[in-house]
Protein 1
Amino acid sequence: MSDKSEVRAELMKKRDAIPTEVRRAKDRLIRERLLALDEIKVSNLIFFFASFRSEIDTLEPMTLLLAEGKRIVLPKVDRKNHLLLLYEIKSIEELVPGYMGIPEPAVLSEERTITVNDIEAVVIPGAGFDEAGNRIGYGGGYYDRLLASIGKDLPVIAPAYEEQITESIPSEPHDIKVTMIVTDRRVIRCTG
């Protein structure tokens, strides 16, 4: 399976097949491991994604972090410029369906705009990952462009179900690696 679209389809099929009750238990384990990370504990401004379809639940961890006084930033898709615009949210109640139905910030005022270099930690989605930190996204390249624009070293954390971890993800030179993967079984500190 060296073709990215085949790998993506196979990993999405595995993720979609996780039964609801099992998914809830896995979400809880991932949430506990994610929130226990030193990289999350020391960060005050954290970039997150809002979960969609069969992705790991991120609404609960965001709610808990907001209650702790952390600042949460979410992307809004700018289709025209093929970019992610970043906005701080104060509550998950501020999310509305956006591009392809994916939840994104509704409050788009200037004072909520965040630049990528203000962020202290990044939590990103993906269809699948390998232990070297290679990530396969959903094919739009939005997150690779966002990560490539960061001018400093940041923890790039991918919460994922164990079913999304595979031996090898085909990667290209422009693909940005994650620094750690948090699953329902373990925290993988990527070596790649």
Note: The chain has a mean pLDDT of 94.
Protein 2
Amino acid sequence: MTVEEALRAKHREQFPKEHGALVSVESDGVQLEGILEWPDEAAGVVLFAHGSGSSRLSPRNRHVAQQLREVGLATLLVDLLTAEEDRDYEQRFDIGLLANRLADAANFLLADRRTARLPLGLFGASTGAAAALEFAAGMPQRVAAVVSRGGRPDLVADPVLRQVRAPTLLIVGSHDYGVIEFNQQAYALLTCEKRLELVVGAGHLFEETGALDRVARLAADWFLRQFPSAQQGRDEPRR
């Protein structure tokens, strides 16, 4: 058994039960479909914002979400656009609209008894990362941490990026040329606690062997580091 397999086995012992539910988030007069899943004694909840043309069923985000749950974090994957809206190319890149939808999803988590008291993290991919940063800038008291995977922070206005207060991790593939530069520019503008990680050998979709697992490990470490309840859980043995 490898070290990583041993760690996952330990996590499964700590969080033996995992629960899930299909949920519906009301926003702008439409119903957004989502999947809420949580382990027992979750230390926080991570709200996913997928990129353009993707959905709550994205295999990449679901892979990352599964690994986050293995370390004790709840996850919500939600469609930010309806099927009809998603056919409109302009709406896919309407960052203001996507950020508002994220805000409604965050309000859903705040009102739900299963997640109401949990610190909130945002995991955004591509255009979803831009929406996550815009939402975090507008709600500094609500968002505990942000992780961007192959994000497009260039779609967020510079003054808005400077307003982000949540600790932010930018993850980019080392072969994702163009997007690397977008993230380097955003990193320079961010005034919060921040980190930029290049996943060696990975492209924009992190399809290379082990690349997505690396993303998941980086994200899990970042969220656990930023969530107060997770820090407490690390210091106190679970019964």
Note: The beta strands are 18-27, 30-39, 45-49, 74-78, 120-125, 143-149, 168-173, 194-199.
Protein 3
Amino acid sequence: MAKGDFPVPKFNFRVTFTPGGVISFQEVTGLDVENEFVEYRNGSDPFFTPERRAGMRKAGQMTFKKGIMSNDTKLMDLYNDLANKKAYYPTMKYPINVTVELMDEANSTVRTWKVWGAVPIKISADNFNSTENAISLETLELAHSGVDIE
């Protein structure tokens, strides 16, 4: 098999926040791009079905999950900038842009998702249970204005 003939595993990825820098995550979801469609039929069209065309793009939400570390406050800092400083509001000029890169075994970028105009909308911690032997996770949700895939 030639190099590049095998699917890339999904566990090697890098997430860069601008502002914020590189932050390591266990899981990233919501890298969706969707277009609505528009139906149109001209009155003199000989067919009785409307034509479908691409319409407006839909922006979605992304979810980032990572283990809580005692000296790492990057997610809380992003969320607190929204809550306390009112950053990321339309009147402010500080949107968050996020780049997610899927990497191959040589750490070369295979595919890139560029998310623009993101705003933190929710931060939460995992449930705590004294009978489980598990890592505590924190979750950040972002609403965004679009995703470009390269």
Note: The radius of gyration is 20 Å.
Protein 4
Amino acid sequence: MHDAGAINRYQLAELGSLLAEPARAAMLLALTDGTSRPAGELARAAGVTPATASAHLRRLLDGGLLALHVQGRHRYYRLADDRVASMLESLSLARIPAHALPTKGNAQLRRARYCYRHLAGELGVAFCAALLRNDWLRTGTRGLQLEITGVDALASHGLQFVDVSRVYGRSCLDWTERRMHLGGPLGVTLTSAMFEAGWLRRSPRNRVLIPSADGLRRLSELGVDVS
């Protein structure tokens, strides 16, 4: 994807044309959970034939929105990086009026979900807010960084991870809550640690993340509003 600081009107128009096709949009949305998927699966998600899907995937690759991983004879597609996921979430936020945001019908999606491999939704926003409120997260020249006091606090409550002194995150505008959650590599690292600790598990059908009773208890002890 083109650098946002250098984008011109022609590049912006090109980006718009990539997103304007519903089949391509469906493929991109299917990958916002951070997974890598084969072309056949993305064709089914978009409701198009394999040949049509291949043409769409080629355009998305050429446009810098997708990356390709080749493993033997298999080819897997994923979003190019978390900036693409953030762009898709931001576009959703800009398009959907407040009264149309998820309500009781899909409360689980609003409660906790994947946003390109990091925790989003009410729980993600509350977790980020608690880190900032306790001064466990600071803003540096390269992004958001976890303070040693934050590392110790999370570890004392059972959240274990490798050295994060050089792992940076960024603020990501949550499309349902319209507030910030923690994204970037740091957000991915902490979310992965929550899975390892059994605080979260994935829904088999969609992007919903399901917190365990123990996970909610430990998050609450860290000052996260889980109500």
Note: The chain has two domains: 4-80, 84-221.
